[in-house]
Amino acid sequence: MQDFNCPALYQWLLNQEQQDDDNRRFYSSYLLGHVSLAEAEFEDNPAECFELLNSNVDTALAEDRLSDEDRAGIRALLNEGLVAQAH
């Protein structure tokens, strides 16, 4: 994804963390660390940053002890953020 903007996604997630919705806060917090790590490794390569972010989130969601609802919510928020940062 060439137009991926990691800093914009990070900022969007920070804004979501401030919402009055406990689930949204949890999902945002969960994703912020993954975005930070991907950006730190591939700051100048949006496509690689995007791939690493998705790979790390997929791996973490498979390994972490989360409910199916939480996994779906995290994935949905990430997808929402990817659309938001592209605009």
UniProtKB/TrEMBL annotation:
Q: Which InterPro entries match?
A: UPF_YfcL (IPR014987)
One Pfam family this chain carries?
Answer: YfcL
Q: Please give the superkingdom of this protein's source.
A: Bacteria
Name of protein: YfcL family protein
- Species: Neptunomonas marina
